[in-house]
Design goal:
heterodimer, A: mainly alpha, two-stranded antiparallel sheet, two-stranded antiparallel ribbon, 11 helices, 4 strands, B: 380 residues, alpha/beta, Rossmann fold, 2 domains, 5-stranded parallel β-sheet, 13 helices, elongated
Chain lengths: 300, 380
């Protein structure tokens, strides 16, 4: 039992990262039908920006929690801006072009960001200071959970709930959903579709930035090319949940994390990825649009 | 006719005697084959500087058998093609022994040329092939690939008496090869492997497989992969409240390991050849300080020391046999026992393999420094 519970905790923590990052994929897809392959790299860019804020030394040695909060704000804002710039330069000029052109542009942007991180921060593994967050961990029923894990799980759920509220219960959220269903009709209704798209490219990367910085704070290491692996996993999470569907991204992320943990824990660590992906294929065979893909009429 | 023959014979004898007397005044020529340029230039220059330092010290004390040592270096750039040219050059120059080189490929290419010319060759290079051709002239001065696994098994089973061993590797050919060798050696030493598994390097989250390992209750977790993953595994072991000890292979030795592992770094054990400043032997400390004084820089790696050990063994052979006859020297070197090297005590078997590995197990201390805990003699 304790092992099952521990694997559950392990899986939900990783699932939290995947879910936060998957939201960015799914929002962009919902509105533009574009897979933003640079999204994973944007998220990891946040980890590096956060690291730079945390190691500036301002605030002194005892300002741990405050500095961490500041790092989250700076990283989210900076990556939100980076997302907007990305949309303006790499995607907007190609909006009327063939969809494959935008995919190639996205892959190019991914490499640009990845190599940019390498040139600015260097190719070595970067290590986060270990004294930022309290080293507390709780044990229950033989399983242990640390303060950082609670922060990640709590923070992810809170942000996801916030996003759900924003999209479904605010005026601008309604505009986003309208643009997702039919951009021309939305424009005729007086919705500024370009503003909607810009907002999607701010909110998605900003949420991903929080996810990326969570990754950095939890593992306390970051390297320039890790955006690819997180991006890929989050993309898969978005697909399982039903791409374009916000609650779907959350469910997909958590499910992927749990699959991974239980595959490694109960079947074979060697075949962990293979087993995970076999399960995913099985899900898509049964529900080709993803788990929550058909529950709502519009995507997003 | 007979008279002519006798005179000729006498003449030849006289010439030989004179030649012999002249020879006694001539320096003893020692070759250095090393990558002075190219990718491994740093290592090659370290080998050359180490050999020249020792030669200078011996010459200052009056030389060997009353003769000075003359060092001649040939740059093989770490490449096999250049190594063959170097070997011929050094053989033509009449060297008695060659110290170096750094890469296995270059050493392998030069090996048969030295063997045919009866020139002693002492080289590092980890390829197991180097000692498999049966050349009497070859003496390896560094441990081969297989030595780390043997040492690790010895440490886990005999040194620490760990009953239950879990082994984790990544999918790289290096880490897989090492973990398979360790598993084989641990079993051979009578240890019990309770878990064998893999991680995907760089995937960062190893809690799932560690939770599985924890449920099997091993005494030790051995990880053969690289430090970015090793540091994380160590940190996540602490997070999961695992009691098992952590022992990492040589690729875990990096300052970043302790930084990534954070508060969990203390007590982690890493197995590797020690870096020069961690060599515990007085002669090694002396050599290190002499090297720094002479060149104003640190030697690039332990391989400066293993090659110096090869040279020191040749010198010891010349002194012990009072001769520069390669056959006598090689015979002495094949039979010497417990030679006190800079990198530990060693000897050579019939195929020129180094017996007595320089590997040590060291534990990370609270301040991030290393403390050698095995072998016990090295820790003193």
């Amino acid at each position: 039992m304790d092992v099952v519970l521990q694997q559950f905790v392990n899986g939900v923590t990783v699932g939290g990262f995947y879910a936060l990052i998957a939201l960015g994929y799914t929002m962009v897809y919902g509105v533009l039908k574009l897979i933003n392959f640079a999204h994973g790299d944007l998220c990891i860019l946040a980890a590096f920006i956060g690291l730079s804020v945390l190691t500036t030394g301002i605030g002194g040695a005892n300002a741990g929690a405050l500095m961490v909060a500041l790092a989250f704000v700076v990283a989210a804002v900076a990556v939100g801006i980076a997302g907007t710039v990305l949309e303006l330069t790499a995607y907007r000029p190609l909006r009327k072009a063939h969809r494959l052109s935008a995919v190639v542009s996205a892959l190019g942007a991914s490499m640009l960001i990845e190599n940019g991180i390498m040139l600015v921060w260097g190719p070595q593994v970067k290590v986060f200071p270990s004294n930022l967050l309290p080293h507390i961990s709780w044990s229950f029923a033989g399983a242990s959970i640390s303060f950082v894990q609670v922060l990640i799980i709590g923070g992810s759920l809170l942000l996801m709930a916030g996003l759900y509220y924003y999209v479904h219960h605010t005026r601008f959220g309604t505009a986003i959903r309208a643009a997702a269903i039919d951009q021309d009709a939305a424009r005729l209704m007086g919705i500024n579709v370009n503003r909607v798209i810009t907002s999607v490219f701010i909110v998605g990367p900003a949420l991903g930035a929080v996810g990326g910085l969570f990754v950095g704070l939890y593992y306390r290491e970051a390297y320039f090319n890790m955006g690819w692996i997180y991006g890929l996993n989050a993309f898969i999470a978005a697909i399982i949940g039903g791409i374009g569907n916000i609650p779907g991204a959350m469910v997909g992320g958590l499910l992927l994390g749990l699959f991974n943990a239980f595959a490694a824990g109960y079947v074979s660590s060697t075949w962990q990825e293979a087993i995970t992906f076999a399960l995913l294929i099985a899900i898509l065979l049964v529900r080709p649009t993803g788990i929550l893909g058909e529950r709502v009429a519009e995507k997003i | 006719m007979r008279r002519t023959l006798v005179i000729t014979a006498l003449g030849a004898l006289a010439a030989a005697t004179l030649w012999g007397a002249a020879l006694a005044q001539q320096p003893i020529k020692i070759g250095v084959q090393a990558p002075i340029t190219g990718q491994y230039a740093n290592e090659g220059q370290g080998i050359e500087k180490g050999v020249e330092l020792i030669a200078k010290q011996i010459n200052a004390q009056g030389g060997l058998l009353g003769r000075q040592i003359q060092v001649q270096t040939c740059d093989d750039a770490g490449e096999a093609s250049q190594a063959a040219i170097c070997a011929r050059q050094l053989v033509n120059a009449g060297v008695l022994a060659v110290i170096g080189t750094y890469t296995s490929g270059a050493a392998l290419a030069a090996e048969p040329i030295y063997a045919r010319a009866n020139v002693i060759q002492t080289s590092d290079g980890t390829s197991d092939k180097l000692t498999q051709s049966g050349y009497k002239t070859f003496f390896r001065n560094a441990p081969p690939n297989s030595a780390e696994a043997k040492f690790t098994a010895q440490f886990l089973v005999k040194g620490k008496d760990y009953q239950r061993v879990a082994v984790l590797s990544d999918h790289s050919s290096f880490a897989q090869g090492l973990s398979q060798a360790v598993i084989k050696e641990v079993k051979a030493a009578g240890g019990n492997i309770v878990f064998t598994g893999f991680i995907n390097a760089g995937s960062q989250d190893y809690t799932a497989v560690l939770t599985k390992i924890k449920s099997l209750n091993p005494d030790v977790l051995y990880f053969s992969g690289y430090y970015p993953d090793g540091g994380l595994i160590r940190a996540q072991m602490e997070q999961l409240h695992m009691n098992a000890a952590f022992v990492g292979g040589d690729a875990n030795q990096n300052v970043a390991f302790a930084k990534i592992a954070g508060s969990a770094a203390q007590g982690a054990i890493i197995i590797n050849v020690p870096s020069p400043e961690n060599l515990p032997y007085p002669a090694a400390k002396q050599f290190l300080s002499d090297y720094k004084t002479a060149y104003g820089q640190d030697p690039p790696s332990i391989y400066t020391f293993t090659n110096a050990d090869g040279f020191r063994a040749v010198i010891a052979a010349i002194k012990a046999t009072n001769s520069t006859d390669p056959a006598k020297l090689m015979d002495w070197m094949h039979h010497m026992t417990n030679f006190q090297g800079l990198t530990g005590t060693f000897s050579w078997n019939a195929s020129g393999e180094r017996i007595g590995s320089p590997f040590t197990a060291f534990e990370i201390q609270a301040d991030g420094s290393y403390k050698i805990i095995y072998p016990a003699s090295a820790g003193q």
